Amino acid sequence: MSVERILIIGAAGQIGSELTIALRKKFGADRVYATDIKMAEKDIVEGGPFQVLDVMNDKMLIHFIIRNKITQIYLLAAVLSGNAEKLPVQAWNINMESLLNVLEIARMVDKVKKIFWPSSIAVFGPTTQKLKTPQLTVMEPTTVYGIAKLAGERWCSYYHHKYGIDIRSLRYPGLISYKTEAGGGTTDYAVEIYYDAIAHGHYECFIEKDTYMPFMFMPDAIKATIALMDRKRSKLSIHSGYNLAGFSYCPEDFYNEIKKHIPDFTIEYKPDFRQAIADSWPDSIDDSVTKKDWGFTPECDISHMTSIMLSEMKKKLN
Ligand code: SER
């Protein structure tokens, strides 16, 4: 069996900061090369190789990959949905060019055997069936982030069919975590709410109280990612992005759950431009193809997650 050498692009971000730790445990710290355009937290920088690297610089990237004999790439750098709406063309360029740089390198460098790239529920749009959205369905995203994710899925499928590249992807639901702040997403109210509950006892929510979206706690998302990457290639029927269901919640669900721990917690609903984004995304996801191909089921529901989020956020804020 060949020895894996892993490159993480976007290791300072919300997914990267946790996936790096998990992959270092699995493959050995010195085999997981964490990179980001900015400095990462101490545990990432000191826990194994770390380098500041810009994925948009394809020459630097290919040198890094060849020099370090990289065999797997996790491309996690992206501009999220809310931020992308503010600078649509720049967001498109960053989200697409980074993927195309990595796909081209995988095509040119024989040693690179496997790629992970995250897709999102943002690939769906207002014309998609909202409840139990199936794997294969109408996809007319209305956000620049979603358009780029859908185009990215098509590119992944293209490189798979045309060049035989083993690229794997998940349509992540809203991801909830405490380690690194989420940045500029629509589902990020569900991270902010915990922080503000502890810091201020009050949260001003930019999404309406009864708007449902699918969510997943980060430890489940990390498990799903590793399970997908470990699965035998011949068992996988999807070469774009696998649906990942998680659990569906609305802001009022988080509010009620937090109130069990902080009875004085208050919330005010002031929807902004992100409400339209949330309205265009599914309420819930059908992950039957995922279950059939590699059998993943999330474990952590809102009450378990809320206890962990509140106690970890408390430690952080102290
Ligand atoms: N959670 C992301 C966002 O809200 C979507 O993948 O932008």
* Main sheet specs: 6 strands, parallel
Q: From the alpha carbons, calculate the radius of gyration and give it in angstroms.
A: 19 Å
Helix content: 40-55%
How many β-strand stretches? Answer: 14
List the uncertain runs. none
Q: What letter string, H or E per element, gives the SSE order?
A: EHEHEHEHHEEHEEEHEEHEEHEHHH
CATH class of the largest domain: Alpha Beta
The count of helical stretches stands at 12
Question: Which shape, going by the Cα principal axes?
Answer: globular
Strand content: 15-25%
Assign the CATH architecture of the largest domain: 3-Layer(aba) Sandwich
Q: Looking at this structure, what is the CATH superfamily of the largest domain?
A: NAD(P)-binding Rossmann-like Domain
Spatial order of strands in the largest sheet: 3-2-1-4-5-7
* SSE-based structural type: alpha/beta
C-alpha end-to-end distance: 46 Å
Protein architecture, described:
There is one protein chain. The protein has helices at residues 16-27, 42-46, 58-67, 81-86, 88-108, 144-163, 189-199, 218-230, 251-261, 274-280, 288-294, 302-317; strands spanning 6-9, 32-36, 50-52, 72-75, 114-116, 119-120, 166-168, 170-172, 174-176, 202-205, 213-217, 242-243, 247-249, 266-269. Helix 1 links the parallel strand 1 (6-9) and strand 2 (32-36). The protein has two domains: 6-171, Rossmann fold, CATH 3.40.50.720; 175-215 and 246-317, Alpha-Beta Complex (UDP-galactose 4-epimerase, domain 1), CATH 3.90.25. The protein is globular and about 55 Å long. The model has no long low-confidence stretch (mean pLDDT 97). The strands form four sheets. The chain has a six-stranded parallel β-sheet with strand order 3-2-1-4-5-7, sandwiched between helices. The longest helix has 21 residues, at 88-108. It has twelve helices and 14 strands. The protein is an alpha/beta fold and 318 residues long. It binds serine. The site of serine (SER) has 11 residues, from loops. Serine is lined by residues 80-81, 120, 122, 145, 172, 174, 185-188.
